[in-house]
Amino acid sequence: MRTLNVLAALCIAGFAATIALASGETVDLGPAKVSLNLSAAGSYTIEKGESSELVHDYDEKISDFQYSIYPSTVTFDGTSDQVMVEVHKMSASEALDEQIPGRRAISALEHCIEQADMMPRRAEYEAKSFTIDGHEGTLLTVDTGKDEPFYIAAYSPDEKDGSGSIVCIIGSDFPWETTKGILDSVKTQLA
User: Fold this and answer.
1) pLDDT, tens digit, 9 for 90 and up, residues 36-56
2) Residue 21 located in a structural domain
3) Which of 37, 54, 138, 185 could, after both became Cys, cross-link 109 (CB 3.0–4.6 A)?
């Protein structure tokens, strides 16, 4: 009987691991591994892009630092919809919850999204607070002129006291219900 119980426990553990693997995908992007459930959108392919290094030196009111961008794009069979994931690694921990002065006051997380490759240039958007992977972040609903908006969420998995050096950005042009399911499934592990 004991052997049967052990065998049953192993089968259940194996089944649970199979479900976890089938429902989630982990994308290794430099300083972070971002796991998300993409299965609701169908069969997909993940393509990691080339990382790039940039210098942030906009003006004297904002600190200067270097940062690296690690991008990836998820394409789905039978649709033009995509999910994009970028990890930005800054050379120093920066205040992410402060407003950045300029033509309009935006949060540092919004600024990170505006600098992301996935953000359409000069697009109108609405920003609101959004919790992702247990971290307070920002969600942008971007008007791209199409029937459905584009959604972009950003958060810092290493945030402490409002500052962080890593920002994860996830964009989706799926309808909101599919996008919300993907964003709600996000888990981040720092390298």
Assistant:
1) 999 888 899 999 999 887 665
2) no
3) 138
